[in-house]
Amino acid sequence: MTKPSNTHRPSAGPWASALRSLLRNRAALASVAVLAFIVVASLCAPFYARHVAHTDPFVSNVAGTIMLNGQETDIMQPNDNPLHLGLSPIGPTGHTAYLLGADSQGRDIMARLLYGGRNSLLISFSAAVLCLVMAGTVGIAAGFFGGVTDMVLSRLMDIMWAVPVYLFAISLSIVTITSGLRIGPFVIEADNLLIPIVIIALVYVPYAARPVRGRVIALRQAEFVTAARCLGVPRWRIVLRDILPNVSTTLVVMGPLLMAMALLAESALSFLSIGVQAPAASWGTIILDGEGLIYTRPMVAIAPGLAIVAVVLALNILGDGLRDALDVRDASRRE
What we know:
Keywords: Cell membrane, Membrane, Transmembrane, Transmembrane helix, Transport. It is found in: Cell membrane. One of its GO terms (biological process) is transmembrane transport. The chain is mainly alpha-helical. The chain has 13 helices and six strands. Helix 4 (109-145) packs antiparallel against helix 5 (147-162). It starts with 13 loop residues before the first helix and ends with a helix.
């Protein structure tokens, strides 16, 4: 007589269950595909500029020419007014060279768009990660230790919360853009990308620290934390083994939203000339370049604007998918 086989399998962990739920979310998968395409395209910027467009997107080329349909065409062309006064950059050509046209300096917009994407995505991603680290540290310290620590950190967050985000970011940028940032013996030059990364991460810390603090206060009253305290487990061990793993889902869900907000902040600062500095490019600086060409060559401003919209929309959809996948209440209902 054969023994009945044991068909019971151990239940998957929360991260595995969340991954399976996320893979069933078509909207979230589509947003990941869009983000992956934009990231890969931006990383291929040097290859595109050198081997496809055959141009240097950081060098002025107002006197240059290109070959279109076998004819040599000036990059800067006379305006369409009756007197043909002034010059306007060439519009979208539909060819590999100057695919989206040129800006007022005769530089290839498509190549600059890809290079700008590298800086914009790098700054927004790095700022989001740094913000989560700082917000997680502040939120866990305030929520777990309580007392004076909670009061001091909470009041500090309230002060930062009271200042409008963009006003706070603009003020910090103006101060650092003139003389750079000095931290002890270390000096960060004004054109270093670390400056907008630190500024953007700092201004969004209160927005991310509050949910973390609330989650930690709830966990501090949980039975497993109380049991660990009664057993004499050190506080640092409780934080690392009991609090942090349960807060990590909150931090992961906030990640895409913070990156989207950081991208918008970076674009705004760069548009105001207090973010990414020349000769580097970002989507915000390209929109600034197209401000004076909005009536004659609108693609200069529209292309980076569409890229920002696509990334922000994809990040928001991905954030919704992560929230649904990691939500314990939704998971219990699915079970």
